[in-house]
Structure formats: structure tokens, C-alpha cells
Amino acid sequence: MTPSQSSANPGLEARLRQIGAERYHDKHPFHHLLHSGGCSIDQVRAWVVNRWYYQSRIPMKDAAFMSRVEDSALRRAWRSRIEDHDGTADRAGGIMRWLKLAEGVGLDPDYVASGRGVLPATRFAVDAYVRYVREEPLLAAVASSLTELFAPAIHEQRIAGLLKHYDFARPETIAYFQHRLSEAPKDVAFGLAWVLENARLPHEEEMALRALTFKTEVLWAQLDALWGAYVEPGRIPPGGWQPGEGLL
């Protein structure tokens, strides 16, 4: 079922999409800098180090969600998200692809995977998201994933911008984003249909809207942390990745 086919509640869907139009992190100046070729290689490395923490926690977030779900059909539908990130015995997942990007920008993948150098604000925001999905009602947990509605456009911009402006960008180093072009729409089609079907009462609709807003703030906070540490004013907090650290 695609989002266009899932409009059991078109008014709510429109309000969810409006949140993305106003709040999604494609509007953050760090992404504008990155996609236009304005980032130095160290700023790109800082982004890779910090975004790793988010990527590594996504399957943990999804496992925490599944542990609370009694409906086996919902668990089956959600399980592919973990496999997309963790991979399977037969294929690599998004986490390994992100480490290939890390290697492409000159970082030691083992250093990145260790989580050293992650900014305190990044860690705080991502941990808050995992905790949110673990503790909030299932409707809020699913709705918080709907930032994927807006992800394909940013991945397309990123692929084009990286290939145009950066020497490290090759098909094998940016494969993470290419794969998400097909994975994210599949995930969000199910998640959107589920939210629209289950958010029937006014307070349930408001819960879904608050959850999606919260997730956009989690994403925005991570980029604010990068901007403050590595762009301007350029104050790297204790424990944050320092240029020259963790290189191959």
C-alpha cells in the first residue's frame, strides 16, 4: 500500500506532510553547505562520525519497538527495517554501507564504529529518540518514523551533490543513500497507512502530530550540534571528534 492509497484520513495526512514541509532537516544550513560542496573534508568527516551514532541506534530503536508489539503481523512488517540496517547473512545492510562511506572519507571504520568522537548533543538527541520509541504509546512510536516521508528527496539531493563536488563520492562510498531510495518508501508506506488507520480520535491525531514534530527536532538538533562545533563558532566540546583523529 502506498501513501496515496492509504489516505483513510486525508486531513491528518496533510497535517503530517505540512510538518515535514516546515520542519524537516533538509532546510538546515549544514545540509545546504554539504550538498553544495561547501564543506571541508573535516566537516564531512565530523558529519560521518556523528551521523554514525544515529545510524547505529536505528535497529536498536526498532528492536525496542518490536519487543512491545503483540500483533505478529505488525512485527513481521517492521522486521525488515532491522534487516535493512543490520543486514543479513547474505547481504550487507545500511550500517556496513555507512562504514564504507567512513572509509571513503579517510576515517578508520573501527574508530567510527566505536562511537568515540560523537558530540554530546548528538548522543543526547539520539538516545532521547530511542527512549521515546521504547516508552511512548505505539501510535507515537510509529508516527515518529514518518520523517521517512521526506527522506527520498534529501537522498536524491545528497547523491547528486556529493558526486558533483567531492572526490570521495563514488557509487560504493555513497551506496547507503542509493539503497535508502528504495527502502524508505517501502517503510513509510506501511507506517503512514498504520498511523492513518489507528489515529481516529482527535487526541490520537494530536499524538501522531506531536510525535512527528519530536522526530524532526531530533534530526535538527544533531545538525545544530555539528554546525556549532565545526562550522561556526567552531567550538568542539570535550569528547567531540577532533580533526586528525581516527584517520586511516
TrEMBL record:
It comes from the Bacteria. Belongs to the PqqC family. It is an enzyme of class 1 (oxidoreductase). This is Pyrroloquinoline-quinone synthase. SUPFAM superfamilies: Heme oxygenase-like (SSF48613). Ring cyclization and eight-electron oxidation of 3a-(2-amino-2-carboxyethyl)-4,5-dioxo-4,5,6,7,8,9-hexahydroquinoline-7,9-dicarboxylic-acid to PQQ. Keywords: Oxidoreductase, PQQ biosynthesis. InterPro entries: Haem_Oase-like_multi-hlx, PqqC, PqqC-like, Thiaminase-2/PQQC. Its EC number is 1.3.3.11. Residues 14-224 form the Thiaminase-2/PQQC domain.
